């Protein structure tokens, strides 16, 4: 069989796959009709399970300061793996907890991040072995990645120093909670 024949067969197979809407993936993240997308936790359930631990850890690290909380919304991540555009059958939800530190708090960014991570460890969280923490000597920021086994998401904990108008230095502590790509119960295919 020549190269030309193989190219024609490959193109024909690709067209057939596209035309039938089949996914070349194993089914773990496609929206297809398999049972894997019909059950399991939703992205909101995952956030509801992750958020309290993180909020408690941040509050314990920076007691007496009310954290700012806001959502970055959700992002579509469903559909076949090999298509660039994703549908809303699955979603990722992102939320932030931010605490501006007081100039009187002389802890380093590393100490603040380590404190949050340590509180989370007490609730069975662990540093994400797939993502190494980092520190940026340029701006002094420190970041660590934490996951809760079976928690369907992760947290990025970071602290960054900044100069106030008075010339004093203060730290900002941020915990970004991100769910895994999970089922959207409100999604209905047309």
Protein architecture, described:
The protein is of the alpha+beta class and 190 residues long. 26% of the residues lie in helices and 32% in strands. Strands 1, 2, 3, 4, 5, 6, 7 and 8 form an eight-stranded antiparallel beta sheet that branches. Helix 2 (43-61) packs across helix 3. Residues 1-37 have low confidence and may be disordered.
Could you describe the largest sheet, including whether it forms a barrel? 8 strands, antiparallel
- Oligomerization state: single chain
User: In percent terms, what proportion of residues is strand?
Assistant: 25-35%
Low-confidence residue ranges: 1-37
Query: What is the helical fraction, as a range of percent?
Result: 25-40%
Structural class: alpha+beta
State the distance separating the first and last CA atoms: 43 Å
Radius of gyration: 22 Å
How many distinct beta strands?
8
Q: What are the secondary-structure elements, in order, as H or E?
A: HHEEHEEEEEE
Work out the helix count: 3
Mean pLDDT: 80
| Broad shape | elongated
